Structures are given as C-alpha cells and as structure tokens.
Amino acid sequence: MHARLGHDFERFGRGLPRDAAAYVREAYGVDLTARYLGYTLPHPIGKGSGQLSLNAEQLETDREAGLAFVVLKTVVAEDAAGARSMGAWAVPETKMRVERRRAADGRVGWTVTWKGRGWDGAFEDYLALVRIAGDLTRDGALLTVPSAKYHLPRLDEPFRESEYRHTTLRLAEAWGEGVLPLEKDFSPTLAGDVLADERSRILRWLREVPALIRSTGGPAPLRLALKLMNARFDDAFQREMMAAAAGADALVCFNRLWDGSTNVAYGGWDLSERNLGVLRAARRERLARPGGAASPALVGTGNVCSGRLVLDYARAGCESVELHTFFQLPLSEYPASAGSRTQRALHVLLFHPVDGLVAGMLELEAAGVLHRCGGELRFLDLCDLVEG
Ligand SMILES: Cc1cc2nc3c(=O)[nH]c(=O)nc-3n(C[C@H](O)[C@H](O)[C@H](O)COP(=O)(O)O)c2cc1C
Predict the structure, then answer these.
(1) What is the rounded average pLDDT for all residues in the chain?
(2) Which pLDDT value is given to residue 189?
(3) Other CB atoms closer than 10 Å to residue 184's CB: what's the count?
(4) Quick one: angle between helices 269-288 and 235-244, nearest 10?
(5) Is 302 near ligand 1, meaning CB less than 6 Å away?
(6) Whether pLDDT at 293 is above 70
(7) I need a labelling partner for 160 at 20 to 30 A (CA). Which of 9, 87, 111, 240 fits?
C-alpha cells in the first residue's frame, strides 16, 4: 500500500484523478465520506469563508479541483432600508500578505495578514453569488454555502430583528428551492472588539442567535452553522460557548486568534493547538455524559496544513474541515507541478505518503486504532472513536 501511495503521489502531482475520493476507495479501501451541516461529502476538505470565495470563477476552479464544499465570503447583514448595524465590518480589503509565523512552542507555520473584514460590495451582488451557489449545490456540482454576520447587541439592548429578517429572507429567496445552508460568522475582529469584552454578552448571542435566524428566515427550511470565534478568554469559556450554541445544527471551531498588539487576526500552530485542545476537552466532557442531549455536529478550522491535521480534527470530533491559508501558499510550497492551488493542496493533503490523509488512516489501522468495516476504513468512524 505504501509503495502504491508513493507512486500515486508522484503521478497525481501532474494531475489529480477526476474523482479522487472514488479512486481512494477503490485503490486503498479507504472511505473518505464526510459531512458538513448534514450534507454528505465525498471527502472532508472544504474551503472556509474569505477572500477565496468571492466570485463565480473561484467557485468553478474549486468545483473542477474536486473540493468537497466552499463557504462564501461573509456578507454584513442589512435591513430593508440598507442600514447595517455591523457596517464597521464591511471595510474595503487591503492586500493580503502570506507570511511565516512562529508559534509559542517554536513551530513555524503560515498565516495571512490582512485588515479587511466582510463582503465590501453591494448586497445585491452578494445575492447574485448566492443564486449561483444554490444552483451549484442543487446540481450536485459543489456544495456552496452563504455566510453572514448579523447585529449583535449589548446586554441591555434587543437584537435588531429587521436586519435578521431582511437578510435571511433575501438570502433564502436568492438561494431558491430546497434547504438553505447558512454559516453565521463570529469573527476574530469581533473577538478583538470591546463588544466581546463581556462573557455574558457573548453567551447570550450564542443562545439567542440560532432561534432568531430560524424565526426570521420565513418558511424556507434552513440549516445553520455558527462559526465560533476564539474569544479572549480561557479554554473553559471556549467550551461554555460551544454549549451555549446548542441551538445550531453545526459549529465551526474556531476562527483565527486575535493579536491585540498589532490588531490583526492570525493562524498557524498556535491556532490549531488552541482549537484542538478545546475540542478534545469538549469531546471528553461529551463522552463522560452519554445519553445527553444531541450536540451540534462539528467542523474544524485552523491551520489544516496536512492530512495529519485533518485526522487530528476528526479525532477531536469534526466531520469535515474548512481551510483558507493552505490554499494561499506560494506555489513552490506545493509538491504538485501542475493544477490550481486548490488541486495542488488536495494532492498533498490526500496523497502525501507520510503526512497525507490516506497514509494517516492506514497508519491508524496498523496501530490498531481504526478498524475496517465491510472491508473499508471509514473517515467518519474517527469522529466517534472511543480511544483508550
Ligand atoms: C484573508 C482571510 C479572510 C477571511 N475572511 C473570513 C470571513 O469573511 N468570514 C469567515 O467566517 N471567516 C473568514 N476567514 C477565516 C477562514 O475561513 C478560516 O476559518 C481561518 O482562516 C482558519 O483557517 P486557516 O488556518 O486554514 O486559514 C478569513 C481568513 C483569512 C485568512
């Protein structure tokens, strides 16, 4: 198997097979089936919301590369008159810098330094993109998910429901037939804002926002993921946030860290350490109280830069992962010699003979951690694995 993997890694560096997940199943007996917000995916690797999902061309490139799903850039909600309470989040983008970043433990990873925030174009233009997203999803070409940021009040203030209603209804209308999948973003810039200084305020948002979005979204069915921020509090509070967000269908854990000294969000190994630490502790808590209320499904995000990291997030309970930075590296960082950045990233994440997803799953089998079922190793089994 390892010789075969080495050979595949080498030849797929010149071009991935049309359906990489089907190939992996056939060649290795590895079933990469994953899930995002209840949708079944061929494999767990998707694209997080941001500057890489702003237009139809980027979506077409990702569809062709065989990405499992894409979350569109976050739009800032508005009411019928066009007023946006979170308008400060719709600032025009500056140039992104892809940089090395040394983590507290000394490991050097990648981060993207950028001062922009939400979608800075017209809401109508975003809705045009959502129409394309609905069509791509219904056609089975690429699961494409809108993302929004809505009004968040102080404790003594009510939520501006008009903003929630107008935005969700327009998104649902643009989406068209069928269930609307939606991510609600709590961003790192928000984590760095005075608005997020108080724990009780954050917990109220997480408790109330899911019901508010559902109740203002009209009759159209909706599946909601909350993308949680890394708040500037400890890991225990991070888990309190997860518990408070139980009204969501899925939680994306967790958006980038906030550097208060330079006022920028960042990623790299500090981010994956923090996220995995919290997710593992949350998982231990869940396992300790079996039979409790069903929790939202989990999606990982943060420094996914190898198949091993995908496995780390899966073993911490995540049914899929959302990447951004790894799709932005200098071309020289990818071992593949051809294809889009998305293709080159998938190539190394799936097929690297040591650090790839397939290699990692075979290794877990050899270690007696993961077992074949019906002759196959199944990615999703990792999420429920009870490890000694
Ligand atoms: C330049 C940039 C812009 C981003 N914009 C958004 C956004 O608008 N909404 C959102 O939910 N996440 C946004 N993100 C977060 C990413 O989707 C992702 O969750 C995060 O960067 C962690 O993954 P990574 O380490 O693979 O980059 C952005 C990230 C970057 C680097």
Answers:
(1) 94
(2) 77
(3) 25
(4) 60
(5) yes
(6) no
(7) 240
CA–CA gap between residue 323 and residue 163 (Å, rounded): 29
* Single-letter residue type at 35: R
Distance between CA 25 and CA 376 in Å, rounded? 8
Closest CA to 9 of 352, 331, 361, 335: 352
Give the separation between CA 107 and CA 102, rounded to whole angstroms: 6
Residue nearest to atom 6 of ligand 1 (CA): 50
The model's pTM? 0.97
Sign of CA dihedral 36, 297, 188, 356: negative
Please name the amino acid found at residue 52. Answer: L
**108 has which bridge partners?**
102
Do residues 134 and 182 touch, judged by C-beta distance below 8 A? no
Cβ–Cβ under 8 Å, residues 379 and 314: yes
HSE-CB at 194 with a 13 A cutoff on CA atoms is 1
Q: Is the CB of 267 under 6 A from ligand 1?
A: yes
Nearest atom (ligand 1) to Cα of 74:
8
Q: What is the pLDDT of residues 35-61, one digit of tens each?
A: 999 999 999 999 999 999 999 999 999
Tokens 């030849």, located at residue = 11
Confidence class of residue 292 from pLDDT cuts 50, 70 and 90? Answer: low
- DSSP class of residue 40? E
Assigned token pair, 210: 């899911």
Q: Whose CA is nearest to atom 3 of ligand 1?
A: 50
Q: Is 48 in the pocket of ligand 1 (CB under 6 A)?
A: yes
Nearest residue to 302 (alpha-carbon basis) of 15, 48, 14: 48
**Which residues, 6+ apart, have CB-to-CB distance to 231 below 8 Å?**
191, 196, 199, 202, 237, 238, 241
Rounded to whole angstroms, the Cα distance separating 383 from 379 reads: 8
With a 6 A CB cut-off, is 113 part of the ligand 1 pocket? no
Summarised one tens digit per residue, pLDDT across range 331-362 is 999 999 999 999 999 999 999 999 999 999 99
pLDDT on residue 93: 65
Query: Alpha carbon 369 to chain centroid distance?
Result: 26
Length of the chain: 388
Q: CA geometry: angle at 244 spanning 242 and 249, to 5°?
A: 70
Contact 76, 84 (CB under 8 A): yes
Q: Is 323 in the pocket of ligand 1 (CB under 6 A)?
A: yes
Sign of the Cα pseudo-torsion (281, 283, 284, 286, in order): positive
